[in-house]
Amino acid sequence: MNYPVLIILLLLGVLKGYSQDVVKYQTTGFLDFNGYYDTRDYSVMTINILAKLPNRFQFFSLTNYKSGNKSSDLSSFYSEFNMRWQVKKGNPFDLTYQLVMRQGDGNDDHRIGVRWRLDNTSKLATFFKKLNMNYSMNPMLIQFRVATETKYMTQIEHVYKIRLYKDRIYLGGFADQNIAFSNSKMSVIWVTEHQLGVRIVDQFYGVVEYRLNDFLASESTGVGFGLEYKIKF
Fold it and tell me: pLDDT tens digits for 42-53?
């Protein structure tokens, strides 16, 4: 069974039923398809989905399908499913729930946190507007797996996008600041990607991306070259 697709359908179905008698609302968002060749000799396909829903809800997911070394067959996946709720209209804070699913058994995570959209904060909005930049940070206050104990302050997500030249050239990415505690010592493990995109035609882009993953014992850094196609709705 394709659990990620099932989860998406259930969430969207529940929200649609909840909102249809409350207010008429046109859902907007995008589907974003990316294909890369990584300099570490593997391929990646990424699918991003964003849906701005009624009653200040928002759904966002990303799924990475990755091939083995020196192979084009997509043999593993990593997915994040995010449900966000703006606490008040005009407020820059969202309550967030994230489900992380990985290849294998017993390694899925549930995370609960608060997202702060700095570019929507009144005293900072002018500054970010001058930079043509969106930036948010999302501390995950609680993380747990079914088979393990609850952990606190495990991750802070940073997400940004800068429009360098209208919609033709952009720089965007994320940085996951993973906080680990061991023997009363704290360490920070980074997973980060930064993508430069140049529009070729319509919503079709050529992209190059720098990647860092401190969880990998070897070859933690690489560069991806690929194409991106975005469908807005």
Answer: 999 999 999 999
Q: Residue 222 in contact with residue 200, Cβ under 8 Å?
A: no
Q: Could you read off the pLDDT of 68-114 as tens digits, one per residue?
A: 776 667 888 999 999 999 999 999 999 999 999 988 887 889 999 99
The dihedral region occupied by 55, where left means phi > 0, alpha psi between -120 and 50, and beta the remainder, is: left
Question: Domain locations in the chain?
Answer: 3-232
**Shortest CA distance to 81 belongs to which of 68, 65, 102, 62?**
62
Cβ(8)–Cβ(61) under 8 Å? yes
| Bridge-based pairing state of the strands 109-117 and 133-144 | antiparallel
Cα torsion 114, 116, 117, 123: sign? positive
Helices (H), the chain: 3-19, 125-130
Question: Distance between alpha carbon 50 and the CA centroid of its chain, in Å?
Answer: 10
What CATH number belongs to 3-232? 2.40.160.40
